[in-house]
């Protein structure tokens, strides 16, 4: 029987009123091999069904959320084109469908679907390519943004590219459609408006974002009159990272047009925009406008990027573009408090703001998502926020999904954050700090350069990264693919550096002084180095002190020529510079996957713990375990095989947050308080959800 792991192990101390309760991939409505997406979602009037657009599949998808903690796939409805948006009206779902033959000959439909029977009860030709659809709170009107989007391969996507877009208005009493001309309004390409998103207030006024035109228009739906319009303007934002250089440094300043995408009313006079940007802009934030004057009454500045940095979700590869890239906005009132929800498409989160003072939103929490959160909709009657994420990357183990968050549910995120704008991610190892009860060290891998050691305060909830130390060699910063870290009892550290194989960069043990400078690089012995694949050193542990100091390394995968299922663990005796090896038996790999080691920790002088994991994410994840073993008899000659003992299965903890199960559990250590800690590597948010799970495993080892 396994030692008990505390129920709070999966990130105790998370803050915020909304907790994630379910993640359901779109492929559940078809097949795991299907290229399925979930771009924009809506919730039925009775709150029991999520309807989402699946553009690649040219269909609507349905999830039964009667039990919101356990959504069930409920089928799809094939359409005559690509659905771009969906909203609900009474018992109907209203889908905007792009049926265009080309960019120059656009067409589209509004398809009215009975949610219960899935019958198409009406199809309305729109005459152009639709993007967003919104239903008035009064139920009297439906507004559809007819974008007639540009061809991004023509003139680098610069507008004008006719035909122009417009706003279509449907009177739900007669289902008749009228057209609102939006030409001649914007300073940018006034002859080619490209409306992107639309929202309607209680006065039957629609606010329309013209993203590429950097313009906003307010339309009175009763008579189709543009009553106000104004430029979205530009903004100068300091304290951001504008360099794609594998470093997160908030020391740049940008000036950019807002180019808003998503838009939503906060009340009948104020509305918020997600300033995603396009080919000319993107201010990395959101703004609140007053419709009466066009004045910006609030701008978030660098807040979203700073939040992304603090939570380990900042996508550095997008620094030279649009940063965290705000995509969409929605509002909802829960527990008597109105909230604004802002999607960050590249940083994979939804930022939640209290808007009791809508001119001064107050940050409440981040809700982590899977990749590419595009849609966000609220269902206050069910206490739910629904986020739909369109990025589907089967080869990376990431699938387009719908995620549900519930007001009042336990929030287990974040489990670790940073202070003082310390950029972080890709935590590839953990080490205790000798003499410090509540301090750990971690290290960044090749996702960032130069290599940095990060100080973690485990006494805080969530854990806090409070300091950083840059690794240097010969006085200059250096970048390693550091996958292991162990503090030396006499001061300084050992790094385990993964190489790229026998003909590439070598696997190394690197001895660091206390100031982070390199004192020594130790390669693997030649006979072993010649057989190491690209999955080499993944963990480092230290036993002994002074002349008895020994460094232990875990090799992640089998060496070329070694028996399948046996990986090597080595001991380097510092005084004699000699190596000895033992074999460690891996669990069987799931079909199509591999299993390897990710960490090694000294429990005592001859007992060790390792992390054994597969390379699978999400529902496919199977092996995420902590094993212990004693040094086998005969160690020092030949290759004796260790006998392992299961200490803990981490998979239940990784799934406890109801998100996309992380694959890379890469850090494990016993702290100065005697408690065991583990952490996941988020790959620097590239081709991953970016979510980091810091686990408190109690007295496990």
CATH class of the domain at 417-698: Mainly Beta
- Total beta-strand segments: 52
Give the class from helix and strand content and strand pairing.
mainly beta
- Spatial shape: elongated
Distance between the termini: 14 Å
Helix content: under 10%
How many strands, what sense, and barrel or not for the largest sheet? 5 strands, mixed
Q: Say which CATH homologous superfamily of the domain at 417-698 is assigned.
A: TolB, C-terminal domain
Low-confidence stretches: 1-14
Mean pLDDT: 96
Looking at CATH, which topology of the domain at 417-698 would you report?
Neuraminidase
Compact description:
This protein is mainly β and 701 residues long. Among the domains are: 79-231, Methylamine Dehydrogenase, Chain H (7 Propeller), CATH 2.130.10.10; 417-698, Neuraminidase (6 Propeller).
């Amino acid at each position: 029987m396994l030692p008990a792991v505390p129920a709070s192990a999966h990130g105790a101390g998370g803050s915020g009123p909304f907790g994630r309760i379910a993640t359901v991939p779109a492929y559940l409505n078809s097949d795991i091999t299907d290229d399925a997406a979930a771009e924009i979602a809506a919730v039925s009037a009775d709150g029991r069904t999520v309807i989402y657009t699946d553009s690649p599949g040219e269909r609507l998808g349905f999830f039964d959320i009667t039990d919101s903690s356990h959504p069930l796939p409920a089928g799809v409805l094939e359409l005559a084109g690509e659905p771009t948006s969906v909203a609900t009206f009474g018992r109907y779902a209203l889908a905007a469908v792009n049926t265009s033959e080309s960019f120059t000959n656009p067409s589209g439909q509004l398809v009215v679907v009975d949610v219960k029977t899935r019958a198409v009860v009406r199809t309305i030709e729109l005459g152009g390519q639709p993007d967003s659809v919104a239903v008035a709170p009064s139920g009297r009107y439906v507004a559809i943004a007819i974008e007639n989007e540009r061809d991004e391969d023509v003139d680098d996507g610069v507008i004008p590219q006719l035909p122009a877009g417009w706003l279509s208005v449907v009177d739900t009493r007669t289902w008749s459609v009228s057209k609102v001309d939006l030409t001649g309004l914007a300073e940018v390409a006034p002859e080619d408006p490209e409306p992107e998103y639309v929202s309607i207030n209680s006065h039957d006024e629609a606010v329309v974002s013209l993203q590429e035109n950097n313009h906003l228009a307010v339309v009175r739906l009763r008579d189709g009159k543009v009553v106000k319009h104004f430029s979205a303007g530009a903004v100068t934002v300091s304290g951001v990272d504008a360099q794609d250089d594998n470093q997160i440094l908030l020391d740049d300043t940008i000036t950019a047009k807002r180019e808003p995408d998503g838009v939503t009313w906060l009340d009948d006079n104020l509305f918020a925009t997600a300033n995603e940007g396009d080919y000319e802009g993107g201010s990395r934030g959101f703004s609140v406008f007053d419709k009466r004057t066009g004045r910006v009454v609030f701008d978030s500045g660098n807040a979203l990027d700073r939040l992304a940095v603090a939570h380990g979700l900042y996508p550095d590869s997008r620094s030279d573009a649009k940063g965290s890239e705000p995509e969409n906005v929605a509002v909802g009132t829960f527990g008597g408090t109105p909230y604004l929800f802002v999607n960050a498409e590249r940083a994979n989160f939804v930022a939640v703001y209290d808007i009791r003072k809508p001119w001064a939103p107050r940050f409440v929490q981040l809700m982590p998502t899977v990749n590419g959160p595009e849609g966000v909709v609220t269902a206050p009657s069910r206490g739910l926020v629904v986020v739909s994420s369109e990025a589907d990357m089967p080869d990376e183990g990431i699938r387009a999904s719908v995620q549900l968050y519930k007001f009042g549910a336990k929030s287990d995120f974040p489990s670790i954050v940073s202070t003082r704008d310390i950029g972080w991610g890709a935590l590839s190892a953990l080490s205790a700090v000798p003499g410090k009860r509540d301090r750990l060290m971690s290290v960044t891998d090749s996702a960032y350069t130069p290599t940095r050691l990060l100080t973690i305060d485990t006494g805080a909830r969530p854990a806090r990264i409070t300091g950083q130390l840059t690794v240097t060699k010969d006085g200059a910063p250096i970048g390693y693919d550091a996958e292991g870290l162990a503090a030396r009892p006499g001061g300084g550290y050992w790094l385990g550096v993964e190489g790229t194989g026998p003909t590439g960069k070598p696997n190394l043990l690197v001895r660091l002084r206390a100031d982070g400078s390199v004192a020594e690089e130790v390669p693997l012995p030649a006979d072993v180095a010649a057989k190491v694949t690209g999955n080499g050193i993944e963990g480092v542990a230290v036993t002994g002190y002074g002349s008895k100091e020994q460094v232990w390394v875990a090799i992640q995968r089998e060496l070329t020529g070694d028996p399948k299922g046996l990986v090597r663990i080595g001991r380097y005796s510092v005084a004699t510079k000699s190596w000895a090896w033992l074999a460690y038996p891996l669990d069987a790999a799931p079909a199509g996957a591999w299993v390897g080691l990710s960490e090694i920790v000294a429990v005592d002088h001859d007992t060790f713990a390792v992390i054994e994991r597969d390379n699978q994410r999400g529902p496919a994840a199977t092996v995420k375990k902590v094993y212990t073993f004693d040094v086998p008899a005969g160690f020092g000659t030949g290759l004796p095989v260790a006998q392992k003992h299961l200490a803990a299965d981490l998979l239940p903890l990784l799934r406890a947050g109801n998100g996309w199960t992380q694959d890379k559990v890469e850090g494990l250590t016993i702290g100065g308080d005697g408690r065991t800690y583990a952490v996941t590597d988020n790959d620097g948010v590239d081709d991953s959800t970016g979510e980091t799970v810091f686990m408190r495993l109690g007295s496990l080892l």
